[in-house]
């Protein structure tokens, strides 16, 4: 619940200005955008203690969710700053630093989770600690590469607000729906199933979804630059796409099969016999995590080719479809709910992959015409 709530708030806390960093041509403006995103996130974080007493009772949230929300404020600033600094470093070619931050984040989450023996409060602290550790690594790396060498004044921030105003206006709504898609399953489990089921489900997400998502982000950053360079040179994107698919498909398939057959025993060995059910959940959920991991890194094609409308439409429809299914269907057990969720995610990301393939086909066709 903590991680997905953070993702939802993080998608709007910086008003999407963190996404403008990677495409900014002027170094000073890119520096200013990072500061702007961080200040906007800090403003929302300071408001959270006043918002929490109003929102949580309205949602009929259990007490353990209220305790987890306490950690949201500091984590929110680290989350948004981490995204902004990652984009700044990608813009500068600092892929080693961004990759190191993901490794540090995953290691911190796993280490704290193991020490906390899988308790809900421990998982929350582990998630927050992971974002904080990654942010520190990114801050040090960005500073060494020249970030914030010049003073940032209020008029500088106003300038980049006006310069990139399309990001909050056009990108916030689809991003919010995309983040809500991550929150909805966790919220549903927390509200309609037991605290034990919520903890088991949360541990499964922490161990599988978080590391796979981090790998996906790193691959996305690398591919985004390759796709942008190819478009600028009017070159084919297919070689990068084929190479990525060949490199990722085999290891991911092996991981999926291992988790499908052995997750219960692995979780029992790592966290104790009481968390065996988290492994049983992972045996199904691993495929729901693998689907976005394989498809999402290719979404850079949509952004590079300026298919923002199609991309945003899929994000909104994905969230609306998930909400509709969960609202209209009743589930007798968490296992039944999870099976539905897995099938829905695989189907949705298959459609997303088809949209990406269609956009790429149009680009390759137009490119060949231009070459000839």
Automatic annotation (TrEMBL):
UniProt keyword annotations, A-Z: Cell membrane, Membrane, Transmembrane, Transmembrane helix
Residue ranges of the TM segments: 33-51, 71-90, 102-123, 129-148, 169-195, 207-224, 245-272, 284-305, 312-331, 337-360
Superkingdom in the source lineage: Bacteria
Primary localization class, coarse: membrane
Gene Ontology, cellular component aspect: plasma membrane
Coiled coil: none
Keyword Cell membrane applies: yes
Protein's membrane topology: Multi-pass membrane protein
InterPro entries: Poly_Biosynth_Transport
Compartment(s): Cell membrane
Identification of the protein by name: Lipopolysaccharide biosynthesis protein
């Amino acid at each position: 619940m903590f991680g997905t709530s953070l993702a939802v708030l993080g998608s709007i806390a910086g008003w999407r200005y963190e996404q403008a960093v990677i495409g900014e041509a002027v170094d000073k403006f890119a520096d200013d955008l990072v500061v702007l995103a961080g200040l906007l996130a800090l403003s929302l974080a300071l408001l959270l203690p006043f918002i929490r007493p109003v929102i949580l009772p309205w949602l009929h949230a259990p007490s353990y969710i209220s305790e987890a929300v306490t950690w949201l404020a500091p984590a929110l600033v680290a989350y948004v700053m981490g995204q902004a600094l990652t984009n700044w470093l990608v813009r500068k070619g600092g892929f080693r630093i961004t990759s190191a931050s993901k490794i540090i984040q995953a290691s911190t989450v796993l280490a704290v989770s193991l020490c906390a023996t899988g308790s809900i409060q421990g998982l929350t602290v582990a998630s927050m600690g992971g974002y904080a550790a990654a942010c520190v690594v990114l801050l040090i790396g960005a500073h060494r590469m020249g970030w914030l060498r010049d003073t940032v004044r209020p008029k500088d921030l106003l300038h980049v607000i006006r310069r990139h105003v399309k990001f909050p206006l056009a990108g916030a709504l689809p991003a919010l729906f995309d983040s809500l898609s991550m929150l909805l399953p966790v919220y549903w489990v927390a509200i309609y199933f037991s605290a034990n089921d919520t903890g088991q489900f949360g541990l499964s997400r922490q161990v599988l979804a978080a590391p796979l998502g981090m790998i996906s982000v790193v691959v996305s950053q690398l591919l985004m630059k390759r796709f942008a360079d190819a478009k600028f040179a009017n070159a084919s994107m297919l070689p990068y796409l084929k190479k990525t698919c060949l490199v990722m498909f085999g290891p991911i398939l092996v991981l999926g099969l291992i988790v499908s057959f052995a997750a219960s025993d692995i979780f029992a060995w790592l966290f104790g016999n009481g968390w065996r059910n988290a492994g049983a959940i992972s045996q199904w959920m691993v495929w729901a995590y693998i689907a976005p991991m394989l498809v999402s890194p290719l979404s850079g094609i949509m952004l590079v080719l300026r298919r923002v409308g199609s991309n945003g439409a899929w994000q909104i429809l994905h969230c609306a479809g998930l909400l509709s299914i969960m609202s209209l269907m009743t589930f007798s057990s968490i296992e039944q709910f999870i099976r539905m969720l897995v099938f829905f995610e695989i189907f949705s990301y298959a459609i997303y992959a088809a949209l990406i393939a269609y956009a790429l086909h149009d680009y390759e066709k137009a490119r060949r015409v231009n070459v000839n």
